[in-house]
């Protein structure tokens, strides 16, 4: 009976991780293609106020899913004892890369925009560096969808 519970816990962790990753993947593509390019339309004089509000509201939307994603990715990496274990570890390292990029690129850019106002140079750096996160999240999503597909087809 405990093996069945463990099996279900593994799959539940995988599904929660995939849900957080898929949410963030969709969101990052929207941010990359629509949201960040519109920053230059806010207006230099209004941007400081906009940037501060943007940062706090964005944090409300992304903090929970990002924490859930990295936590479940770590638990999966440490506990997954099935096929595609290497892909689970790769997914974990990809999410670590996302966090590193967020901490070293995205947050400092937003901080500059929120303290100094709009800067074309900072805006360009934010949009260009954000491709790293966009591609890493896309890779994670594809890996997790592949693993889920394989788990479904194995159990048929």
Write the layout of secondary structure elements.
Blueprint: H1 2-35, H2 44-79, H3 85-116, H4 120-155
CATH topology: Four Helix Bundle (Hemerythrin (Met), subunit A)
> How many distinct folded domains?
1
CATH architecture: Up-down Bundle
Q: Outline, from the CA principal axes?
A: elongated
Instruction: State mean pLDDT (0 to 100 scale).
Output: 93
Question: Nutshell version of this structure?
Answer:
The protein has helices at residues 2-35, 44-79, 85-116, 120-155. The model has no long low-confidence stretch (mean pLDDT 93). It has a single domain (2-37, 55-155), classed as Four Helix Bundle (Hemerythrin (Met), subunit A), CATH 1.20.120.
Provide structural commentary.
It is a single chain. This protein has 156 residues and is mainly alpha-helical. It has one domain (2-37, 55-155): Up-down Bundle (Four Helix Bundle (Hemerythrin (Met), subunit A)). Helices cover 88% and strands 0% of the residues. It has four helices and no strands. Helix 1 (2-35) runs antiparallel to helix 2 and helix 2 (44-79) runs antiparallel to helix 3 (85-116). It is elongated and about 60 Å long. The two termini are 21 Å apart. The relative contact order is 0.16. The mean pLDDT is 93.
